[in-house]
Amino acid sequence: MSERTAARVGAQRGDAESGTPPVIDAAFARWLAARAGQALLEVRESVGYADPKALKAAGDQASHDLIRAELARWRPADAVLSEEDESSRTAWSEGTPRPDRLGAQRVWIIDPLDGTREFSEQGRTDWAVHVALWTADCSRPNCLAAGAVALPAQHRVLATDEPPAYPPLPLSSATGGKIRLAASRSRPPEFLTALGEDIGAEMVPMGSAGAKIAAVISGEADAYIHAGGQYEWDSAAPVAVATATGLHASRIDGTTLQYNEADPRLPDLVVCRKDLAPRLLAALQRHLRVP
Ligand SMILES: Nc1ncnc2c1ncn2[C@@H]1O[C@H](COP(=O)(O)O)[C@@H](OP(=O)(O)O)[C@H]1O
Ligand SMILES: [Mg+2]
Predict the structure, then answer these.
(1) What pTM does this model have?
(2) Where is this region: Disordered (predicted)?
(3) Closest approach atom of ligand 1 to CA 188
(4) Under a CB-based contact definition with an 8 Å cutoff, are residues 112 and 83 in contact?
(5) Does residue 265 line the site of ligand 1, with CB under 6 A?
(6) Cβ of 230 below 6 Å from ligand 1
(7) pLDDT digits (tens, 9 = 90+) for 236-245
(8) What are phi and psi of 86, to 5 degrees?
(9) Does 232 contact ligand 1 (Cβ within 6 A)?
(10) ipTM greater than 0.95, yes or no?
């Protein structure tokens, strides 16, 4: 391998021997999410499932600590917005101290463990690690420059350095079969059953926003609809990967998903194949209309 090729491969993959991560942000996000995912598998193994609360707490902590330490080491100038970091996650309002992330050029938006409930249930694979990079210098409407979603129990990491292929058109779309709608197992939107009946959809209940968006990316579901509450870290990384893949991702009223806002609440979204978006957004409009 020439010196030049070695330098390029190093920037993309990092150096396994020295533990040096990749230089390119998207590859770095993949590396970081994969490492945190490995740590979570080890926590599951060592803590066990007898006390789900203890397992959730241990997982959140281990993944958060690992990600924060690696970001501090390898991206010290960047700000962080994390579910597990009180100072960054609190909504900012005039007259209170402004969190670093609101004046920063680059902000890592991370959810160290998405699908915490499912993580604590033996045998479930619908939980994820989210690592996204928001930049003030936007080339995309949502300003997400990179993202990685690790699904450790599914042995896969999806990331924007090598975006996954667009999902294949399901057989059902040619034969007039049902649309498969991924939705929260525990907190599905109230209107979803009626909307599903309206458009001839069946529900695919699943944990974790990352796992549901990954299911749309790989074609196991046609769409993911959520409403009623969520935060930027729940969707930033999977939305970065979904949009890099070419899928539709927006608020349920069709507007752009925006990140690194003063208030990190981002309560609803729809992610789906591009061909389905007009139909789903029209149905959402009907079902969200105040009577
Ligand atoms: N109504 C709501 N309010 C706040 N967060 C919500 C929510 N519904 C779902 N979420 C969050 O969105 C993520 C995916 O949820 P679900 O598995 O129900 O689809 C979970 O993240 P965490 O596991 O990181 O807490 C969950 O806490
Ligand atoms: Mg989450």
Answers:
(1) 0.94
(2) 1-20
(3) 18
(4) yes
(5) no
(6) yes
(7) 999 999 999 9
(8) -55, -45
(9) no
(10) yes
